[in-house]
Amino acid sequence: MLGTVLIVLLLVPMQIAVIYILGRFVVKQAQGPLSRLREPAIRWDFFWLMLTSGLCTAVVVVLLSAYLPGR
Amino acid sequence: MAQTKLLPGTGAKVARFVAIYLAIELVPFIAIYLVYHKPVAALTFAYVIVGLPALMQIPVYGLWQLDVRGASPRLLAVCWFWLMQLMTSTVVVGLLIGGHKIHVVTRNEAIWGFAIWQMLMVPVDFFTGYLKVLAMKTSQREAS
Questions:
Q1: Which of chain A's residues have a Cβ under 8 Å away from the Cβ of B122?
Q2: Are B74 and A41 spatial neighbours (Cβ–Cβ below 8 Å)?
Q3: Closest CA in chain A for residue B131
Q4: What digits encode the pLDDT tens for the residues A4-34?
């Protein structure tokens, strides 16, 4: 219980913050294909692709844990 | 139609060739199934790994059609990302389920293995699938 609260309230926002700060630096410095991430439309594509593929992964994980035999 | 090269430099042509090859390879499995009315046990593992990606030739062909008909670079890039996602994740799920079936992989390892594989592969697919196709099609469009 305490572990879950700690993870949800502290660790997840911290990870998001670290990735955001590092990501800003990377995008600012980027040359080549990654530099396209400076355009807002491409950034939204990145956001939606990450979100939807993450949700698909979650669905597959739920299906695996429901239907794979064993404990 | 044939003179327009499909997404040059991304390996789309190779992917299409492999997909068609796999689909042809699927024929003996279907034939064995039709004759004996059950999948041959020794071939089930290979079928799970090889058979499912064979179906990917359909979206690859669809992507080729989109490119030929002048779809926007962003649409092509998004489609290419999902194609790569489908191909890599189906192969890995097939391997993990097959490995679990023959007791090489435990249940937990199969589930966590897939989750961690996806965490690594989704950004890779975004870079090689989305950004690369986007850059290529944009420069191609500016050149013409």
A1: 49-50, 53-54, 57
A2: yes
A3: A33
A4: 888 888 888 888 899 889 989 988 998 888 8
